[in-house]
Amino acid sequence: MPNGADISTAPSSEIYYPSDEVVANANVPDYMEVREEALKDPVAFWDARAKEFLDWYEPYEQVLDDSNAPFYKWFAGGKTNIVHNALDRHAQSWRKNKLAMIWEGENGDQRMFSYFSLWKAVNRFANILKSMGVQKGDTVTIYMGRVPELPIAMLATVKLGAIHSVVYGGFSEQALANRITDAQSKVLVTCDGAWLRGKTVNLKDIADEAVSRSPVVQKVIVYKRTGQDVEMVPGRDFWWHDLEKLPIASPYCETEVMDAEDPLFILYTSGTTGKPKGVLHTCGGYQVHIATTLKYVFDLKEEDRWWCAADPGWITGHSYIVYAPLILGATSFIYEGAPGYPYPDRWWKMVERYNISILYTAPTAIRALMRFGEAWAERHDLSSLRLLGSVGEPINPEAWRWYYKHIGQEKCPIMDTWWQTETGGFMITPTPVVPLKPGSGTLPFAGVVADVVRANGETCDPNEDGYLVLKQPWPGMARTVWGDPDRYVETYWSEFRDFGWYFTGDSARKDDDGYFWIIGRMDDVIKVSGYRLGTAEIESALVSHAKVAEAACIGVPDELRGNVIHAFCILNAGETGSEDLAQELKQHVRHEVGPIAVPAAIEFVDNLPKTRSGKIMRRLLKAQVLGQPLGDTSTLAG
Ligand code: PRX
Known about the structure:
Layout: H1 20-25, H2 31-40, H3 42-53, E1 62-65, E2 73-76, E3 79-80, H4 82-91, E4 99-104, E5 110-114, H5 115-131, E6 139-143, H6 149-159, E7 163-166, H7 173-183, E8 187-191, E9 194-196, E10 199-201, H8 203-213, E11 219-223, E12 237-239, H9 240-244, E13 258-259, E14 263-269, E15 277-282, H10 285-297, E16 305-308, H11 315-327, E17 331-335, H12 346-354, E18 358-361, H13 363-372, H14 375-378, E19 387-391, H15 397-407, E20 414-417, E21 450-453, E22 466-470, E23 480-481, H16 485-493, E24 502-510, E25 516-521, E26 525-528, E27 531-534, H17 535-543, E28 548-558, E29 562-571, H18 579-592, E30 601-604, H19 618-626
Bound molecules: adenosine-5'-monophosphate-propyl ester.
């Protein structure tokens, strides 16, 4: 059934209890009781948090409206704007001179923003977007490197009541073009280039090519980061710094009043077809979910220095770099580059320099840093750290222990947070007071009802693999797939339609203590270094090459990256496979989808195993590569 464990999990007997000090200082020391209470009435729990953490221009009339399930509504009737909670209110409070964001460039550049200065920068850019014709309800696509202007562009878009669609800077031409077309964005915000491991990525060139494939774009705003040569199309392309000098870029722009259920942003994620899936989040519930989870799980306090080392272009960055820390009035640190560049202790040096107290990253980064050895960490004073976090894929116990011992100095609990682009915020996660087991996300968060079930809906026995489902709606849930509500129902709500449950696409098991262990994806999604890729998108890039007739991709476990992609290609008649052609195809995927999607191996084959209805049986390909038994082959076409 499930696709198979990507990484082996630990025996559940290894338990790490929080120290008395951690418990005594936690924001929610009685979390276990709070969680019990919330289980009895999840809606009441979220209602209380909505009042505790957020201001509303006008109060909501109903917490949860389930009259049109699965199209749930949260906080209906409430008037809000996330930018009010994230910036406007702080810029007018004592926090105005508090640091909101500290940024370090790969080349050592440093920039700092107080709440007031960030608020002003966002106002200016909102006015610039307005002058480009952006209005409430429009979409703006943002394709940038990891610079402060990325969150600024997101916040400015939302200030106007428009909807952002951030496309991760590691995607290439076709991936970007598809996303622009699907969102119908008339305005694109990009950079000349981005720094990556001492080299520049030509973002503007990629954006130009994408715009030529997706001519809906009328205006392109370009932030200068690398200073490389780029072509500017007159009347279409504008430099950010030129626009900023114009009188239109005044430092005050009214924040649009939004309904709680108005669209906030679209974030494309991979699914089972090649067409990107625009996950839609809305203005009210999302805020409640992310502010609550950050406050409870990472125990955020006024004096913390929070470092979420994800990219703002993914959901982790949206929720926990940009929005939740600002809502809570925190100080965030952002680093432009890759871990371990230009030297293996770059991260640890920054932890020391900026006095980072909470670090949240992905297992793949931990494994990469672990490879360099702990001596690099030992060179630095990491005593400022008090909590650590992990996200994106199962963390193997070996990496967990290394992180705990050498980075957390055996005093920092590790928050292994399971969630998805679609859930908006953490769903299965400990808080600092929850005893930990390496490799387990522990328990569903307060107000979240999760379970592991069989195909017929029965709850699995302890330690039995099954489908991970969410049995109750939650405020940060995706509301639909942009422009395709049927796909939303089909993808998430059809597997357990009779029960009204959301199916996550993951397989999992619960142990004897009720702790959840994520096994991996059950669908055609592959997690490579924590990045989520759909086999279909890579396959369609492969078949767009003139020599390829058919392609199939699978994920194969990899010690460092969690999984790598293994591609099978059938060539057109008259073509023969060779190492050169494999290289050419890898280059082609890099160009069309992006470097993260490049297969580690390409195998040329004469046919692919298919069901009688023509569906490729990737399960069989995977078993073949891993040398495992083929299992049930009764549906295989003869
Ligand atoms: O398979 C699960 C895995 O990542 C998937 C969601 O990917 P994405 O939408 O890109 O969001 C990633 C960041 C929230 C899930 O279906 N996943 C995420 N976090 C964990 C995880 N697997 C195991 N443990 C985690 N902590």
